[in-house]
Design brief:
The protein has helices at residues 2-15, 19-34, 40-52, 57-70, 73-101, 105-129, 138-152, 158-175. It is mainly α and 176 residues long. The protein has two domains: 2-95, no CATH class; 105-175. The radius of gyration is 22 Å and the shape is extended. The protein starts with a helix and ends with a helix.
């Protein structure tokens, strides 16, 4: 049973695109429908518990399903390890290839483009959150500018910036 558990969760980790929520249908198919290790009701309970506990839902679900299916911590460890292993192998391969080709101008150009794309995606997400119901006021823009300066030019750690911004926001919005 442990080998089948490993194979099932390795397959889920390999094809579970879209993060943990994308994995849930694969997990349900493998453990409820195909292998019948747990019932649909147990799976629903496991998903609810996985959502309430810290950490990625796909990994939490694998941990709980592994334990529930085998009634052992070993099953829990095997399922968790198996679901994470494909991502680890893929990232390790990418790191190896990147370190090998990082001086290549084509790779450098691709990475520069990716940096710009990430900035664009973050900006797009921020702009999507701005609408007439939650428009950001001028003080928020001042906080944003201050946080940018503190991080970019003064090299203040982001966690300290978050603490400073929270304290300043409390003072400003409480008393203004």
């Amino acid at each position: 049973m442990y080998i089948q558990l490993f194979i099932s969760f390795f397959k889920i980790g390999l094809f579970g695109f879209g993060g943990g929520y994308g994995m849930l249908s694969l997990i349900q198919h493998e453990v409820v429908e195909k292998n019948r290790w747990i019932s649909a009701t147990e799976f629903t309970d496991i998903v609810a518990i996985s959502q309430m506990t810290p950490g990625p839902i796909g990994i939490n679900s694998a941990t709980y399903v592994g334990y529930t299916a085998t009634n052992s911590i070993i099953g829990s460890c095997i399922a968790t390890f198996a679901v994470m292993l494909p991502s680890f192998i893929i990232i390790l391969t990418i790191c190896h290839l990147f370190s090998k080709f990082k001086k290549n101008t084509d790779v450098q150009n691709i990475m520069s483009g990716l940096h710009l794309a990430v900035i664009g995606l973050i900006a797009a997400a921020a702009l999507l959150l701005i609408n007439k119901d939650n428009f950001i006021d001028y003080l928020s823009w001042i906080f944003f500018g201050g946080a940018f300066v503190l991080n970019k030019y003064l090299k203040i750690h982001p966690i300290l910036i978050i603490i400073i911004a929270g304290f300043t926001g409390f003072i400003v919005y409480e008393f203004l």
